[in-house]
Specification:
Elements lengths: L2 H37 L3 E22 L12 E3 L4 E2 L5 E10 L5 E14 L5 E14 L4 E8 H15 L4 E14 L3 E12 L3 E4 L2 E16 L4 E4 L3 E4 H23 L5 H12 L4 E3 L10 E3 L3 H10 L4 E4 L4 E5 L4 E5 L6
Parallel strand pairs: 14-16, 15-18
Antiparallel strand pairs: 1-2, 1-4, 1-11, 3-10, 4-7, 5-6, 5-8, 8-9, 9-10, 12-13, 16-17, 17-18
Length: 343
């Protein structure tokens, strides 16, 4: 028999009512706790944005081929190409558009500017020249503006600035889009830039795709989904609920088993079995011969008899048929009847 089960039977035999009532009380409290934790799961405060509105800005390009090449025919329209050939298309059109999503009313002011800059080696701007390309207003969404860039003229100006700078820095050119917007709820400004890369035979205009989202912060309390598990699609069980449910089930099951076993256990038998297990390493099973009662010493406890065996360098012999433990030496016998366990 497993040690834990034997100890349980011993407790039932000696303190049955206390054990069963205690287990039943643990089960009730555990189930009550499980119910409370299920009804009141752990929560966290989450900040969310309500009434969201998103502002989107984009810059696209297109160019019309003006000179035949082996790659393009005159009149071809090239859109949003990563590279344009200067010999094929010496000018390009940039189209800027800003839109406010989910807004019932909107005011948009959009400015497109060509900017020349001189920068030091660490990127510090120490000179700038700005040329406004377009300005558009819109009271309906979206606002759209476009401008044509004379790449050859821009390249000439870029070369001149570079020559003037010498080793004093580097020249850069880009298109800046600035949009001031006002909605019924929010207002703000978006500023984006599109770098113009000039090469000997080609040029590139960097596209723009930017967003700016507004929202009203709102505090919301939600169930902490990390504090439990979800069964199916909707049933959420907190870890505490699961643990208390398991404890309650185990305690309740033990209480039921204990109630049924209590009528079967015998205090004397269970006590003797516990003592036997406790001193098992000193006990050997066997059959005791008839012993002269005049040479018998009856010990008070099995522990006392084991002490005798240790002192005499002997063994305790257990005779299950007689229900008796004994240590026999040359002069007599020391015995411990199992019946004393119930005294």
């Amino acid at each position: 028999m497993l040690p834990g089960r034997r100890k349980f039977r011993y407790l039932l035999a000696t303190r049955g009512t206390v054990v069963i009532v205690t287990l039943a009380l643990i089960a009730v409290l555990a189930f009550l706790g499980a119910g409370v934790s299920y009804a009141n799961p752990s929560t966290i405060d989450v900040s969310t944005d309500s009434n969201q509105q998103t502002v989107e800005m984009s810059l696209s390009t297109h160019a019309t081929v003006t000179n035949d090449t082996s790659m393009y025919d005159r009149g071809d329209r090239l859109e949003d190409r990563p590279v344009y050939l200067r010999r094929a298309a010496s000018s390009a059109t940039v189209v800027a558009e800003t839109a406010v999503l989910d807004a019932s009313e909107v005011e948009l002011d959009q400015t497109m500017t060509l900017v020349y800059e001189a920068r030091t080696s660490d990127g510090t701007v120490f000179w700038q020249d700005r040329e406004q390309l377009s300005y558009e207003e819109a009271r309906t969404d979206p606002v759209r503006s476009e401008a044509t860039l004379d790449v050859e003229e821009i390249a000439d100006r870029h070369r001149t600035i570079t020559a003037d700078l010498g080793d004093g820095g580097s020249a850069h050119v880009y298109v800046q889009i600035r949009t001031d917007y006002r909605t019924g709820t929010y207002e703000g400004t978006m500023v984006e830039r599109s770098d113009l890369s000039l090469r000997t035979e080609s040029y590139a205009i960097e596209p723009i795709a930017a967003t700016n989202t507004h929202g009203t912060p709102t505090a919301e309390t939600r169930t902490d989904m990390n504090s439990g598990i979800t069964l199916g699609e909707t049933l959420f069980l907190p870890h505490v609920t699961l643990a208390l449910g398991i404890i309650g089930s185990a305690a309740g099951g033990c209480a039921v088993v204990g109630y049924r076993l209590r009528r079967e256990v015998n205090p004397a038998v269970e006590t003797a079995a516990i003592h036997h297990d406790r001193y098992e390493e000193w006990i050997s099973s066997g059959t005791l011969p008839p012993i002269d009662p005049r040479s018998v010493v009856v010990m008070e406890t099995l522990a006392d008899l084991v002490d005798v065996a240790i002192d005499t360098n002997g063994r305790v012999v257990y005779d299950a048929a007689q229900g008796c433990y004994a240590v026999i030496d040359g002069t007599g016998a020391y015995v411990y009847p199992e019946s004393r366990a119930n005294d």
